[in-house]
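Notebook entry, structure prediction.
Reason for the run: the old model in the group folder had no record of what sequence produced it. Starting over properly, with the input documented here first.
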Amino acid sequence: MIKGSVLFMCRDNSAMSQMAEAFAKQVAPKDIDVLSAGIEPAKSMEPAAVEVMKEYGIDMSSMQPKAVSDLGILQFDLVVALTGTADDTLPPVSGSPPVVRWVIREARALGEEHADKKETLKQAAGTIRSLVADLFRCGYCEAFLTYKINTDKVIDNIPLGILAHDKNRKIFFFSRGAEKLTGMSAGDVIGRDCHDVFVPRLCGDNCSFCDHDVIPLFEKKCYSTVIPEVRGERKELDVTVVPILDAKSRFQGVVASLADNTPLVSIMREYEGEDAFCGIIGRTNEMRSVFQQIRDLGVYDVPVNISGETGTGKELVARAIHKESTRRDGPFVPINCGALPEGLVESELFGHVKGSFSGAVRDKKGRFELADGGTLFLDEVAELPQSAQVKLLRFLQEGTLEKVGSETPISVNVRIISATNKDLKKEVEKGIFRSDLYYRLNVVPISLPPLRERKSDIPLLVNHFIKRMSAKSGINGITVSNEAMDHLVAYDWPGNVRELQNVLQFLVIKAAAGKTVKVAHLPPEIRGRDVSVAKPRGRRSKLVRETVENALARAGWNKAKAARILGVGRATLYRFLEKHPEIDAGGDDML
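New structure, fully documented this time:
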């Protein structure tokens, strides 16, 4: 006989399922575990049922009613539901076993008189005894168990993770594929709320079960998400969710398939190259650290504050965080707080109602509402007036806001990413920025280095922008001469990447005829820069990090050529690089 477990389940008259359990234990093979439970069981054993079972020589006096919800992580291979009518709604059971329904008249139908109950239960006991005997002796139980085993084999060999939960988000099925994807076992998750199992949520902002009073209505949902797998590996998933309906088309829960999209994402990133991430160009250690922070933040829905000089790419980083997060399918709404007229800041951020001020001729949604389900990027957040800071703080604390002219709070599901080119800590010390808001926004700080501190990235950026601008303008084949590149690398770029981008747009137009950007094409402030490397007199000057990085960048990371530019031997440069592993020397030498 196949090993397995059988659950006898009824609604509120737990006596019937207990009688079935008692009869089954007399005839079931020893490899079959038998249990009984009620959906809403009685608080104590039914005395009339005890008396009826004594007539069959079975003592049920020590049995106690159990609730299906109290069975925890137990999984079953077969459920036998003893119901009063064929229309009774049954909850999903752990393991998603096949369900057999026995319609049996319930004792409660004849009122509370003991004699009536006993007579009804006596009739029920006879029927149950006969059905239980057929279940085990006629091969039906073995057939159902075989069906369950084969079905599980099919599901477990599908290259997807499958999970299912009921209307209360309680997981009742978790396939072997889901175990492999998440690093969690079925025993870890069965019977638990999926929002408690997956932190942050697997569904992100695509959940249909946050309002228990509303039955979700949909045919299918498809979305992508990311999760931190238990062993620390980030997983990129494509999720498909479909509803579970009973025979009467009543909603019972959902089943979700999880497809591992991580390999494809990895291939796309390899195609993008080691020197780029989500459209951000850089190969220095500082930029690679920023890339890793963005990846790590994708699965954690916390506020982020990006600091850096004007033009360093703060909005680009904010967009990358959004793209890598579970909110990627939601809107990304940027707003420059410093560009808003002071009288309209609150209206732009939080919206207003008709008639709230002169010119408010209709209700208007603010940026918070427009970003619902996604990310709101507050650029130059240090420029917010105190009144708006108070409202922003309240939103971060309570998740609600009030439109201008309204006293009714509304809930909005938004992730906040802020950015500033100022030192917020100093703004707090000056009393310009609220300290409590600062700590709420600065949960995860990201600092972007200025371009002058990552000069080895300049040739990468130049080639990237030249290629993109050439394709856009239809002027292909434009290159930058070595001498012009030396000047571009030597310049300090006070406007950072934004200034470099603007200069290159100008250079593409200037060099269109000859297809080569030369020193003569450069703006005077860049062309006049001294890029020569002084020849050492007598004893060679000591190498310093910035000089070495500049030489490597000018040499295209060819160490032999960089050594010649620096006026030192290759061995000297190699020794210096060994002592300074923080310098990204570009891997193997190109001779």
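Summary: Residues 533-541 have pLDDT under 50 and may be disordered.
The old model has been moved to the deprecated folder.
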